[in-house]
């Protein structure tokens, strides 16, 4: 298995307006078991937060105009990506939180419950 940092999923910036950005400052994320620095990640300050809020405000009208079914399809794809990457996400949670791997991977049960709600909302087209 690739290390966390070698994965194409590993990002240290912040996502706003559909793009990854670097912040003006960063902070260390450490493995609580070893004290090892896992990564330096974006520390969003006022400017970054305002940028993300403005992007969300611009995106909201298009999201609101989508049918419940269309939103459910987007969230279903998100759910599928989580399941496809369950092992990597479990490894990430174990490394950054000290959580046992089996427990971290087990959080997919919670995601499955969320997905069930999303799927039903999409089927009824009421959200």
UniProtKB/TrEMBL annotation:
One of its GO terms (cellular component) is cytosol. One of its GO terms (molecular function) is succinate-semialdehyde dehydrogenase (NAD+) activity. Residues 21-111 form the Aldehyde dehydrogenase domain. The keyword RNA-binding does not apply. GO terms for biological process: gamma-aminobutyric acid catabolic process. It comes from the Bacteria. InterPro entries: Ald_DH/histidinol_DH, Ald_DH_N, Aldehyde_DH_dom, Aldehyde_DH_Superfamily. The keyword Cell membrane does not apply. Keywords: Oxidoreductase. Its EC number is 1.2.1.79. Belongs to the aldehyde dehydrogenase family. This is Succinate-semialdehyde dehydrogenase [NADP(+)] GabD. The lineage of its organism: Bacteria, Pseudomonadati, Pseudomonadota, Gammaproteobacteria, Enterobacterales.
